[in-house]
Amino acid sequence: MTVLTVPMAEAGPASLTRRTRVLRRLRRNPLAVVSFVVLALAAVVALLSPWIAPYSVEQTDFGHTFSPPGTPGHVLGTDDLGRDVLSRIMLGARASLEVGLLAVATSLIIGVPLGLAAGYFRAWDAVISRFTDLLLAFPFLIMAVGLAAIRGASLGNAAVAIGIAQIPGVIRVVRSDTLRLKSLDFVAAAVVDGASDLWVLARHILPNATSVILVQATVAIPAAILGEAVLSFLGLGIQPPAPSLGTMLATAQQFAARAPWAAIFPGVVIMILALAFNVFGDALRDALDPKGDR
Amino acid sequence: MTTVESPGAASSVLGAPVLEIRDLSVSFTTEGGTVSAVDRVSLDLAPGEIVGMVGESGCGKSVTAMSIAGLLPSSARISGSVRLRGTELVGTRESVLRRVRGKEIAYIFQEPMTSLNPVLTVGRQIGEVLQVHERMSRPAARARAVELLSLVGIPSASKRVDNYPHQLSGGMRQRVMIAMAVACGPKVLVADEPTTALDVTVQAGILQVLRDLRDRLGTTILIITHDLGVIADVADRVVVMYAGRVVERAQVTDLFAHPLHRYTAGLLSASPTPGKHAGTARLQEIPGLVPVLSSQPDACTFADRCPAADSQCRESAPPLEVVGTGGALAAKDHLAACWHPCPAPRTQPQETDL
Amino acid sequence: MIRYLLRRAWQSALTLLLSTVVVFLGVRALPGDPALALAGEDRSPEALEAIRHHYGLDQPLPLQFAQYVERAVQGDFGVSIRTGTPVSSMLTTALPVTAELSVLAILIAAVLGVGAGVLAAVRRGHPAEWLANGLALVGLSVPHFWLGLLAILYLSVATGLFPASGFVPLLQDPVDNLHHIVLPAVILGTGLAAIIMRQTRSAMLDSLSSDYVRTAKAKGLRPRAVITRHALRNSLIVVVTIVGLQLGGLISGAVVTEQIFGLPGFGKMTIDAVFQRDYPVIQAVVLLTAMAYIVINFFVDLLYSVIDPRIRVTGDPA
Fold first, then answer.
1. Which residue of A88, A93, A145, C165 has the smallest Cβ count within 10 Å?
2. CATH classification of C94-314, choosing from 1.10.3720.10, 3.40.50.300, 3.30.720.210, 3.40.50.720?
3. C23–chain A nearest CA distance, Å
4. For C225-268, what is each residue's pLDDT tens digit?
């Protein structure tokens, strides 16, 4: 590796002020603040759910099946086996977030390097775009069906299927940002100074592409959460009796007329989680948009 | 304060003005506060004359131009008066303005690439104006579009009419813009930096088309540019703007022969002189930048960049009037807003040098 | 134009081939003996041998692949392990249901999404924009199958306005058919509508601030003409792309929607096959989805070149 690269003297303080500016803009946006608070609360509840949930999720009580919400001891009621809906929602939300993060991590780990390569090396671009086309041809549900057929249904397989399906999106945004950054002067200067490609990618392009990656991640997580719910609902994700918002809905569907609350609350929680991520993602994108400067 | 005006310069010669702009002021409300873009601009356009409006970027030239037909965004606050043959346009209903736009007052913009719609043929875009204002049928409008395209000098117009903008060169696109602008025979053509985005060789052709239009159709043209070469080439009269104000107004020959305002003098020495002296002298730049003003001060806004500025310049705004220059007498339609106008005619000694 | 189409055709063909390889290898990766999987009920050694021979499982892998492609092209996807019916005949009954559901959902989503997107862009700062943006965010965040559950619960079961499940073929009774399929289509369309709305809105905001819209205003056109003829026409290019890219999401959504509303389509067939380990069916489903996606996106590209003259003439997307 060469030592002749130009140190990014200006990028340091410039990106620092940029970061504080973005944070300030986020703080001033009430929607950003509200969605962030919701997400922080959800994260705390999910993390602590094994300890703070009022009941064990698998604890059945056949004496109190289908208790309506507001029943003493069961704020959100009980389901067909007398299990506490609130406790199951808490742990279900934990599973949702887990799958969301796992899926997005999968897509980033594979998608970011491929996106960088596609944008930086002309020769790789065509190959990687065929790969992207190929992935796009298998929707996440079909991917999950295939994986379930080969390896059996599980939380991990659901997350991997969703993650793989999200790779093309990551490649697309990282590729276009790499193309943009590559044409900028400081990158050209580093190349002229004899920096190796890997060095340029790692030190100059990747750090500057983090903002688009971050935005992509915030919109991918809610999509993954919804995807997990779908797969679990269909029985292709988390296997009962482990609680998941999707499996709760699948069970509740059979008794929906008798115990609508069991079908309503888990759905509301999925929606709130996804909405909070989407709203925060929008606010983040606005805050990062240089057009909104001044 | 009052500005001493001689409204309607040159109107006695050429008849009643087509367009009268009086005390036009424009300010914008932005997140960062109010920005005053145009300050009490007055200007008359006589039938068939070509008036050049010149100044650096951010002087309020384009804002003035856009405000004539009410094309500014809703964040703009406009006061003053713009009369088209006696009809007031400022504050008029949108439906009235729509009948004026494209029919009475037409525009040409700087970027011919982005100013044309990429997904419609040029014939369709020209024809659209005729369909709206002249109630022409689509085939009739198309046929007229072919005539207009040949009028502005586009070869094999009957083929080009079905082209999309991206199939044409920059110069051709600008000719299409002109054809579109003159389709309904407007009284006034506002050309906002029409040649800035074009090659020099193409520039000359476009300016020739504009001159032809004036000669053949009698169109009044307001041409906005930062290029004094363009002014020297086509304009009859010049208006020099600085920081939202008109600082000098004169016949083209007078202005080039004897700039009065220090800013005009600065602009002239910052541009290569067309003709013999081109390239022989070092160009002077004007130090500093055009200020962005939140309000218009009672002072000369050029004072901070002016070599001749004194306390008077910073304490009261000079009126736009005929100024005495000590010795050489300025023409009676040569106005400047300057407390300390340039003393000597500029070209005389230079000519004798050779 | 020709060059562009040829290039796209070549790329699509390549992707098609690759996806076939992936599915083929995926089938190899299935647990157990593929012959066993293909055998169905009769698992005697002779029957297995016959299957191995029939499907060429005793041949080298590349040859097997060639035969696999050949059979797929002829529409031979084997026989369902559970029912013994040929997979191809199962598909012919299931596909029209899914196709109708999807087309209807796309139509609903396009009308709602483009309408709301234009409204939000044109009425900037008005309550209408706020409402449209909010609805789009909710549409993006709500689990559609849950919306379907609620719809069945409160619209079908409670009021009897719509049938809760079941399907009537279009040709048998068009009115009853629509009655059965309109609610699932609306539910399936909401997510896509939200995505289309957001894309339309941002594309419209871009074109409304463009130079050519300024030109159109300077020509004295009415706001309606400026918006539809100039701004919207350019924005639609973006919308068409989005619909093409979202097709995968739509297929996934259709599977769940069919499951909830009990529509006997492709999705229900898929889910049933997974739980019955009906490998020939799963394989056909995966392969056909990929092929449908690729072929439809090729046609989206064709549509592209109709809308955008820059592609039509020069062969280069803008």
1. C165
2. 1.10.3720.10
3. 9
4. 999 889 988 888 878 877 888 888 888 889 899 988 888 888 88
